[in-house]
């Protein structure tokens, strides 16, 4: 072998190694290989919906919406963070884990919606589908900001997808007009882009959901400014105009579509086996066949007290039927004063709050007062539960809520009276006194909301927008100031790590 | 032999060696040359052998100054006639040091010639070799002769205590288990801390489990410690490098060797188990009563449906007292290790082949490991200056895992019920060891092939080109089945079958040139430049089927599960590394040595902005013993000073961290489960019970390697004709740009992101003393003492806010938790704290046991914590409350120093070795300090107001405190070997050599630690388990 050949062998081996050192993702999706098709876009929209289900976020519907009020309390061995919220220990709120999670997951939802809003327009597929997914993304971004702004006031504003370290910091909204601005404009875009479903879809929002959210948002701001709530009182928007807008969009929901409407029977509103019921404008997409909590729901365990570990049976209204359920952990406990505040004839108390549980033979096993710890909310029972797994899908927007929003926003007109009286009669109560003034009528509607929307994560926000948080016993006892009780503080971890806030 | 081969590769080096030999070795002999020759001629004959006792065929025997001479015959025998009585005989053989021996009237002179290179001690460094005397860096060399009698699955476990600065922890005694390997401490927090292991030039990966290579096939192991030595491996050199050189074909006659080892194991101490059910029941009742619970042992069916007899019943009528350990553990686990090796050489070709069969019984029944290995190495000279090397290693492993059996099961439970079925306490009883052993399946099959081919071309006498191609393929398959009954996974899923596949490939090609030239007799210049490319890939798939109708086939037919409940997943990763390397050695006058090394690495794991990394290092050395003024002292045979400084890296991160990454999930979309995809993926779990997700996915295009700069100062000393040799090193290693995860603003939608942040320091000293006390025909006595001390300190953990560090307000200590969250303490035991070594223990201090309620309240304790019989936690800041701020650094799992001593003795054909290994000054958390039959009876009671143990109380929420920390120092008689070697005259018996030996490992351990054994993992947490095994090995080596 001559030298040349040997040299060729050597250098061919050496050159064999010319290579490309770039990394290409394998086995995971990234911006390079995703957002190309309609299926991608739908998967991304569903990823954004999925945020609402994570237990870090979904449990807070009740924890922030009901727990700090006189509606619910918790048990003594609940996590210290939840006890602090229940007891308004504001000194710890900046590091409260529940608040931190709620805050963080709202933004995770926003980021996922932002991904759809940023990437889908460039993808190459049918415009109608694009509009649908963009509309849902706008709705979800609005929904998450709605959660944030109601609880924290001025929050960091992420208008676009976070893709680099620099983009992880964002400044606070300048004022409430900016903070609510994104909710209003996103809802309007969603209304423009979304269709109305022929029948309610589990876990998906449509134009009616967007109209409902916009009505809720306008009513919230209108009443907050009217009631002189901190920061809201400085807003530029006009109160009357906002009430009108709320009434307009609620009216769209009530009169301009046939998919959603009132459910005649209280129990069927909450029937897990009736997931496409007419009241269900927007509910969580969960099912007992899921593998982890969030995919399935454990909400019922939170409301039911521990009894003896065995299956319990609940009476179906005035009938002789019973449905089974597991017992629970007693985390969300009805406060007795609230229970007693119901009208004695109110079916929403007698049929939806349980003071007697039965065994398989229909014998009373436990009752309140007695050895049942407290009368518990049964809106979230799944009789087909598998162990701890249930298909309970909490309401995010319910038709009756929007009906009451219309009534409150529009004030005492015929439609308003009809809507409120329908809800009252369904609960077994008489009609509202006719001829009330706007202010009195609104007060009556708000009272009605308290009982109709009980345990649905709503009451706390009614108190907030009506500037009544300061009247809660714990708040009064703690001697909290307007600055302390009007909004939760931005979590310390956010202040520490968001360069725009330091 | 290996050494000779190295010489052939580098003839220019040989020249250099010869020069060195002349200087160092021949000088003393020169005096013989002047002896006058006189007297009558005589006949002289004898054998010429090498130091291993093998005959040398064709060795030259000359009479000095006379035209007389001969060569040895096939038996190594020579015969010279008519030689002057006072003549001097010259014995020489290629590759061996020549010897001159005055006849002095004798007629029989047997000679042992010593291998040149053996004398020179050639040391393998990356991409080349160097004489040990010319080393400028810190390299420890271990000849595997010293461990040849100890059977092992992989070499690492055997290296414990054998080199200064090398820390080996053998915390697992499972068959086929690996070891933890560290060189000069831990230099990374989140990346890998394991050294790179390189076998015959093939970088295989992280050290710890080199099971593919039979330790018997290993010739030598080199540990590259300082930057000068390890920087040639660039971005993978920061944790040090272990170079393994396997045996090559033997020069001389064809040899066949059989090595047979049989190992029997036994526990070194008794098991700490309940033998007296009455005492157990009494204490259990006491513990439950103290907790306000109803006692169990009252002769009633408990709430879990189990009948617990009363104490009286246990004392009288209850006969069941099952010794579960006797059912679960083998009496004497056996291990067998058989190696057959064959070696031959012709003028052009050398071959070494070995086959190995290794079986290892675990201490648990049905817990086994066996492996079959083949190793072929061929070295062929295509032309006089072109050499081809080829090697292939094949490994087949088989592991049957059954190592988690409940030997601690309650002795009052029988094994079988009255119907002959397994006695289960309830349908949720998942710890019946016999049922599990009989019905569960958990097997792993492993296969590896490591092949390599190299061309070595001696272009000029001073220039050699080497090109090497390496390829490794490995795969493993796990088969598991968890039956419907007896196992948790099986019960929950109505039978669960698993197939878990993994395969990986490594491809490395390297080409380098070595130039070596002596200029003007005093400038010795060596240059190496090279290039390397490495590709590695791994892929995995996981198949799980659930809900089986019929269990007979276990996981053999996965489609028999319920198709709706199948779980599948797969993974893939790939990384590439392109490198250029260079080394320059310059020696002036054999006194002053200079080395400059550098490597440039481009790794696909690094971000685009930091693709190339450059790792330079330099070293200088002064051989003072070559200076006349030192020579005149007549004290030192060697006095060498070394200093090195350099930079190496650690790229121990997983690939794809510099890319943005989306996550996937599931959503119940209008009645159907659909896959969801979007920005952010779950990279971990956090919070109480790990229920909260950790979100990652923001890329860091600037991500790079961790950098370690290291300086090393060393002295090598030799006295008494090198019979006493001392090596001392001081090093200072600073690692910065530590790979860590920083926290991101909550509103970003992400939690964590990888960054380079933080600093860590390791400083230490190493001392090795080698001595030959006695060396003559009948006696050899030698010893090695090794001492290593490493001091580790966390200097920086990055930005306090971004890293989410916790502050102890009393001491201003900044820290984060590390290690494992222990259920027992509902928290972490270890922390990374600025100013402290890695993983120190952090918890409360205790001051004995509370004797009265008043004492408890006064101590700042409240509620049940203040009761008599409870731990008295100390309120360090004396603010009247014991809270988080009263925690403190309460222990350090890192040893103060480690040391070892090996003593070797030979008397004629008998030899003996004793090896002692010690670890001193480390703390261990003994999690079993108050739940054992040995310590529970010592509890506090009102009648026994001890200050040492608390009262028994079920459900006590114990806080982590110094009460649980014990001194983990130990001195172990690690090995004792006795051997007998017979050399047989080959003409009479087939075999030429026979060796018999007995080895005992883990013979005895001196320690104050109260658990079974203090050798635990690096976090220093002892979890119990079973005692260390003492292994008795009976071995026989036969050479044909």
Can you describe what's shown?
The complex is a heterodimer of chains A (502) and B (1040). Chain A is 46% helix and 6% strand. Chain A has 502 residues and is mainly alpha-helical. Chain A has a two-stranded antiparallel ribbon. A two-stranded antiparallel ribbon of chain A has the order 2-10. In chain A, a hairpin with a 6-residue loop joins β3 and β4 (322-325). In chain A, α2 (38-51) packs antiparallel against α6 (97-119). The model of chain A has no long low-confidence stretch (mean pLDDT 91). Chain B has 1040 residues and is mainly β. Chain B has a 22-stranded antiparallel beta barrel. In chain B, strands 10-15-16-13-14 form a 5-stranded mixed beta sheet. In chain B, a hairpin with a 4-residue loop joins β36 (706-719) and β37 (724-736). Residues 1-38 of chain B have low confidence and may be disordered. Chains A and B meet through α1, α2, α6 and α21 of A and β25, β27, β28, β32 and β33 of B.
SSE layout:
The complex is a heterodimer of chains A (502) and B (1040).
Chain A: H1 3-15, H2 38-51, H3 55-58, H4 60-65, E1 72-73, H5 80-86, H6 97-119, H7 127-152, H8 176-193, H9 207-226, H10 239-255, H11 266-269, E2 280-283, H12 299-303, E3 312-315, E4 322-325, E5 333-334, H13 336-341, H14 347-350, E6 353-354, E7 356-358, E8 364-367, E9 376-377, E10 395-398, H15 399-410, H16 414-426, H17 438-452, H18 459-465, H19 473-478, H20 482-485, H21 492-497
Antiparallel strand pairs in A: 1-5, 2-10, 3-4, 6-9, 7-8
Helix pairs in contact in A: 2-6, 2-7, 6-7, 7-8, 7-9, 8-9, 9-10, 9-15, 9-18, 10-15, 15-16, 15-17
Chain B: H1 2-9, H2 11-26, E1 41-50, E2 60-63, E3 69-71, E4 77-84, E5 88-92, E6 99-102, E7 111-113, H3 116-120, E8 122-125, E9 128-131, E10 139-143, E11 166-169, E12 180-183, E13 196-199, E14 202-206, E15 218-224, H4 227-230, E16 241-246, E17 255-267, H5 277-290, E18 300-301, E19 307-308, H6 311-315, H7 324-328, E20 334-345, E21 349-361, E22 368-383, E23 386-400, H8 433-439, E24 441-460, E25 463-482, H9 488-493, E26 496-519, E27 523-546, E28 567-588, E29 592-603, E30 612-623, H10 628-631, E31 636-650, E32 662-669, E33 672-679, E34 681-686, E35 692-696, E36 706-719, E37 724-736, E38 739-743, E39 752-756, E40 759-775, E41 779-796, H11 800-803, E42 806-808, E43 813-822, E44 827-833, E45 840-843, E46 846-849, H12 853-858, E47 871-873, E48 888-891, E49 897-907, E50 910-920, E51 923-926, E52 965-967, E53 970-983, E54 993-1007, E55 1021-1022, E56 1029-1039
Parallel strand pairs in B: 1-7, 13-16, 51-55
Antiparallel strand pairs in B: 1-4, 2-3, 2-5, 5-6, 8-9, 10-15, 11-12, 13-14, 15-16, 17-20, 17-56, 18-19, 20-21, 21-22, 22-23, 23-24, 24-25, 25-26, 26-27, 27-28, 28-29, 29-30, 30-31, 31-36, 32-33, 34-35, 36-37, 37-40, 38-39, 40-41, 41-49, 42-43, 43-44, 44-45, 45-48, 46-47, 49-50, 50-53, 51-52, 53-54, ...
